[in-house]
């Protein structure tokens, strides 16, 4: 028994040795490079599936088939997609042959979803930038490092500015209404309209974003600050001047819109009669003298000033302007912007301009005695001077110059033309209709043989924002200084008080007559005329 057991064990030992020998001769050797290859291939296939799923070259109906193919052929599928995409970009002119290496690097290193979102997201209609040219997003990310609502705040800020431009606003006002509310208003055609009411938390974030792009101190909320920024639109650039001030309940912000996309108006577009345009052009051709435009704030004086500049030959004459701010960039002339912090004032700028051989000098506004004296002396010594002045009427402008210390003899020898103006709103062409007149108005029409049908009223529609008015035109009073007026100034027979009283009365009568002419022509309403005449009374 023991012998059989021993023989059995020896047989098993021999059998196991034979099996091990056979296994040793048939086993494959372990290769780590093959393992790494298969792991890399597996991840390349997964990456190819991701690229295929996000590729804009594949229709959604074929995306499942493309993903299935990417699982098996992996990088080959990725290479095919890349070649197809590159050829398509080259054929459409979206990619230059020299940019292919950089484009290849972007495809490899950049996240697919981000590329696809950037490529197919609609381009923004507006792009805010600071005065140095940095984008709004760069300035915002540097100045304000906050949470996930950043993108919403930026988009809402851009939307508010864009809506202001689209609404033809001249000013955008953001100010606190209550403890927890802010109002955003647009000034359109001289009147404020409420655009939106926001909670204080969201509006404070918008104010901070605007202060950041305007180069202001975000932490300072009580001290008044000034700044500027710009916006790029498909139509062109728009510039903004911004001012902030701490008020009860929060911080008030005012933005002045200077839209460069609007073309400059000519003298006829402003509202001058054909005979006035002819005479003003003849005065603008003279080598010396002063053309003075006067009126209250917001009466369109700067627009008239730019219209006068349009009549001058920039190639033959050296034109230099001093403005605060520069409301419209004119490429063919030299424009200087006032900066009180840097010592660039109207008076200092005029001193330097006189040393630059100017033919025409445009002064944005005569504010002080020094500027008035230098402007009048320049007009007397061989320069054509265009300027604006805050005054109620033509004769009131003469009184204002006297108040600034200019001698009547200098005014008589230097001043050529004085223009007083007011702006009156025009009826919207889409909703204007016949007016319902009162008994006194009907009697006036009968007495002056005026047809009732020619008098219209404002109704309001979507085009005009429900106001019934769209755009404005100027009512102008042009006074050419003839020998009689010059003699009165030289003899000094009239006191400033008499001059102002006589001039205001004459201007009010002219204003009513010109306004009535616009009413009878169907351009405006009796209500608007009453508003304008009451403002001057």
What does this 3D model show about the protein?
The chain starts with a helix and ends with a helix. Strand 2 (171-176) and strand 3 form a beta hairpin. By secondary structure, it is an alpha/beta fold. A seven-stranded antiparallel β-sheet has the order 1-5-6-7-2-3-4, covered by helices on one side. It folds into three domains: 32-120, no CATH class; 127-259, Beta-Lactamase (2-Layer Sandwich); 267-536, P-loop containing nucleotide triphosphate hydrolases (Rossmann fold), CATH 3.40.50. It has 20 helices and 16 strands. The radius of gyration is 38 Å and the shape is elongated. Helix 8 crosses helix 9 (200-213) and helix 19 runs antiparallel to helix 20 (526-536).
Lay out the secondary structure:
Layout: H1 2-26, H2 32-54, H3 63-73, H4 75-92, H5 100-109, H6 112-120, E1 127-130, H7 136-143, H8 150-166, E2 171-176, E3 181-188, E4 191-199, H9 200-213, E5 225-233, E6 236-247, E7 250-259, H10 267-270, H11 274-284, E8 289-294, H12 301-309, E9 319-323, E10 334-337, H13 346-353, E11 360-363, H14 369-380, E12 384-389, H15 394-403, H16 408-414, E13 415-427, E14 433-434, H17 439-447, E15 456-457, E16 469-480, H18 483-491, H19 496-520, H20 526-536
Parallel strand pairs: 8-12, 8-13, 9-10, 9-11, 11-12
Antiparallel strand pairs: 1-5, 2-3, 2-7, 3-4, 5-6, 6-7, 13-16, 14-15
Helix pairs in contact: 2-3, 2-4, 3-4, 8-9, 13-14, 14-16, 15-19, 16-18, 19-20
